[in-house]
Amino acid sequence: MLSTRLIHLIEDHWQTISSSVIQEIRSDPALRHIRALPETELREIGRTILRNLGHWLTAPKREQDIIAEQYETIGRLRFSESIPLHECVRALQLVKAKTIDFVCDQGLSQSSIDMYGANELERRISAFFDHLIYHEVIGYESALRRSAQLPVDDASDFPARVRAGAR
Questions:
Q1: Exposed (0-12), middle (13-18) or buried (19+): which is 149, by Cβ within 10 Å?
Q2: pTM of the predicted model, to two decimals?
Q3: Cβ–Cβ < 8 Å for 90, 78
Q4: H/E element holding 50?
Q5: Cα–Cα dist 163/19, whole Å
Q6: How far is CA 65 from CA 53, 98, 110, in A?
Q7: Which one of 14, 18, 23, 142 has the minimum C-beta count within 10 Å?
Q8: Is the separation of the CB atoms in 31 and 87 below 8 Å?
């Protein structure tokens, strides 16, 4: 049972959460490439994810495949922009953390039903962001393989071939 009240709060306050994420990105010296992205682009990422969070958390497989494709495209784009993969992953981790922090800051009543709903929402949010990160990494790696002229469809020995090609 997901807490629809909390989902609506996240969707309604996506700008607040996104601003918090952007502030964190801008102040983190380890994210120097991501923080160079225009604020409008960072804000749009937050809007796309958070404004439709309830939809994404309950979407059928067909629509989950759409967002997976979008994040694979974003991964390829970030590779072409020379943004390190660890920064891409960290940025999505920050959106997840700030979203969960927002939920925790809402001061839910302590009824067992509310606590269960909040816990279930946190679990689903974590799984959703894990899904986004996974697909962003797939896209990034496919662009890396293409740039290294490695077969895109055979990733079984990808790390060894990249290391061998880097020598």
A1: exposed
A2: 0.85
A3: no
A4: helix 39-50
A5: 39
A6: 15, 25, 36
A7: 23
A8: yes
Residue type at 1? M
Residue at 120: amino acid letter: E
Q: How many residues does the chain have?
A: 167
- Does 4-166 carry CATH code 1.10.490.10? yes
Question: What is the chain's pLDDT, residue by residue, as a tens digit (167 residues)?
Answer: 567 888 999 999 999 999 999 999 999 999 999 999 999 999 999 999 999 999 999 888 898 899 999 999 999 999 999 999 999 999 999 999 999 999 888 766 677 777 787 888 899 999 999 999 999 999 999 999 999 887 666 555 555 555 455 44
Residue listed under structure tokens 């960290």: 90
Cα angle, residue 124 at apex, residues 108 and 16 outer, rounded to 5°: 55
